[in-house]
Amino acid sequence: MAVHSKIRTDTFTALRECFTTDLAALISDPSPRVATPNDFIGLVEEARDVFATSGFSRWQDASEDLDTAASYLTCALASLHGDQHALLAQARTYLRNGIAKAN
User: How far apart (Å, rounded) are the C-alpha atoms in residues 63 and 2?
Assistant: First the structure.
């Protein structure tokens, strides 16, 4: 069980380090406080909400991708089985797509 927790935390850390700056910049948050996996999911959800309320269709599309990413991240965080890597890989794909659409 401790191995799964470490793997999950390390993978979340990698995702957080990879995507936090881009997400924060897109929603004009100069210094996001993202210390835990839940904080990171909160940032993804905040960006999702900002994009969802915009009048730009590409941002609304990005919001849908970020919503899906947040769901995968939440499921991965709650998962006790070996499917965490697959869930986080899916989240990474949707994060990438959402950020690309928002740019």
Answer: 34
Q: Are 44 and 69 in contact (CB under 8 A)?
A: yes
Q: Rounded to an integer, what distance in angstroms lies between the CA atom of residue 82 and that of residue 64?
A: 26
pTM of the model: 0.86
Residue pLDDT, tens place only, 4-34 = 444 455 777 888 889 998 999 999 987 777 7
C-alpha–C-alpha distance, residues 33 and 99, integer Å? 19
DSSP-derived letter for residue 27 is: T
Contact partners, residue 77, CB within 8 Å, separation at least 6: 8, 12, 37, 38, 41
CA distance 14 to 56: 30
DSSP secondary structure, 38-88, as one string: HHHHHHHHHHHHHHHTSS-HHHHHHHHHHHHHHHHHHHHHH--STTHHHHH
N-term to C-term CA, the chain: 39
